[in-house]
Amino acid sequence: MLIKQIDAEKVLNCAREGKVALRKDPGIHSFSHSSRYAVTDIPKFTFPEVSATPEVAYQLVHDELEFDGKPLMNCASFVSTWMEPQADKLIMENINKNLADQDEYPAAQVVHGRCVSYLADLWKAPKDGNAVGTATGGSSEAIMLGGLALKWRWREARQKEGKDTSKPNIIMGANAQVALEKFARYFDVEARLIPVQCETNFTIDPEEAIKHIDENTIGMFIILGSTYTGHFEPVHQLSQMLDEVERRTGINVPIHVDAASGGFVAPFLYPDLPWSFEVPRVVSINGSGHKFGLSYAGVGWVLWRDTAYLPRGLVFELHYLGGAEETYTLNFSRPACFVVTQYYNFIRLGREGYKRIHTDSLSNARLLSRSLEATGVFELLSDIHRRRGETYHGLLKQAREAGKGQSVNDIQSLGDEFQAGQQGSVDGVDGELAFYNAGLPVVTFKFTDAFQKDYPTVTQAAISLLLRVRGWIVPNYELPPSCETVEILRVVVRESMSADLVDGFMHDTIWALKLLTEQNGVGASILASQDPQVQGNRTPRFYGQDGQPIGDTNEPKQQSNTAMQQMTSMLHNEKTKALHDKWNKTFVWARKQMSATGEYGWKLASQHLGKEHEATGKQDSHHQSTYARPC
């Protein structure tokens, strides 16, 4: 055997850490998890000096984004997180097309124009064909465009009369989404925010709104689907009140409807609800294609009932891309692919498909609502699961008048009246929609007063945090000004949230409740407190049912036996055990009711818990998910 001489110094140098090029082409052995960034930080604040292979770059970005929440379990967002594979394919086929290049991509412009026409028909624009509209990056941009048109028309009218134009104002409820306030701030318009009340379902108070009108009012934003509770604001009622204001004062106040969410729900589920262009005072509407329009984020719409309501001074005519183009947007370039997928949804689903999908979402939202109420812990501020005309405020008033610890859950009626209606003239999906309050498939809820009294240290923020541990993203936030002392949890039930996911959500919610109530807030104090759990040799602060600390928190750890003994005793509290037994039975019972009798078989949980649970030991037959789209 021939052996080549070995240079020991050379071997040692190669063995030392450092840059060793064993091959001339380092890409040959550049692995995704064995790159220079495997043991070195990725540049975060300075531009990288050298390149990386595509495999390495992809893996690094992919791994970093794994820290995001799961879109499927994101109950906070209204934005659609699922589309069919065919829609995904269309996105990839058109992802490199710029919708602004009208001359270069004429077919994309045809699709764009058809979508505007579809929406003009859906939102009941006058049949004379003079409606005009455009795609936007989302409802935020659409609101800016609608508000600007209101301001320009008001200014032009004032200038013709020789009047001051320096103090425009616009009226909206304090529940307005931030984009509406952005319009006012960015474009120098006074935002007159009307405080919301429980009596008005936490939406704009029509009587109060009318009081804030003056000659400088450019218009009124009315929200079809509040982001707080999912309620629809009364467009037709406000329009009639504004008609009366004009008769009395001569002040003409047009309406822009923010239908970011409701614009793709109301036309299919509540076609007789007057909110769109059939109301003469409604001059413009915006909608989010990427919410209940069921497209991915990146597409919104704004339409005007007639070209007369879009001032020509806002429209630009461009010639430098090869042809004459008219545009009214805040930006120029935008992807064409999301407009294409919106068009795909329109022709794929039609009215029938949208109605079926949103009906299923509402059904699952009602399932979740009643299951939450059946725990005895939560009361619902959203009203979509209550019979038409029965509201949280009305029930709350009745409960207070009844006294003796009565709650909203004790007062309301859920199923008997609808079952009776089924035997008469009310039946089927349309009967179901007519029976319940109109609104978005949004579930908003809070602790009952009784639960807060029994467990004063258990917080809704801790529930939200524990659900996040299980993967669910559920926001806990304050209601708008004048109701900001009330905190609510909110779940948006989108197309992708099937009945089976509602099942999983309820089980995880009950798990969180058990964890917190077993310790009567220890979990809450540890998870939600701003202070560290342990500082030095201080013990954690445990709380009793009176809300007071158990034991001396200044004691060393080895002297905390008294506190732990009291905690052990509290864990066996009979009231807590009874509550847990109730939760163990509640959701199984609720699902059996749905499976056996459908949406119509619900009865008040407090009247049936016990006898309805006798068969809970049997195999539970799950209610079938209605997630599959229609053929």
TrEMBL record:
Source organism superkingdom: Eukaryota
Basic and acidic residues bias: start-end ranges: 611-623
Molecular function as annotated in GO: glutamate decarboxylase activity; pyridoxal phosphate binding
Cofactor(s) required for function per UniProt: pyridoxal 5'-phosphate
Segments of this protein annotated with the region Disordered: 543-563, 611-631
Any GO BP annotation: L-glutamate catabolic process
Catalytic reaction equation(s): L-glutamate + H(+) = 4-aminobutanoate + CO2
Gene3D superfamilies registered for this protein in UniProt: 3.90.1150.160, 4.10.280.50, Type I PLP-dependent aspartate aminotransferase-like (Major domain) (3.40.640.10)
Protein name: Glutamate decarboxylase
Species name: Tieghemiomyces parasiticus
Native organism taxonomy: Eukaryota, Fungi, Fungi incertae sedis, Zoopagomycota, Kickxellomycotina
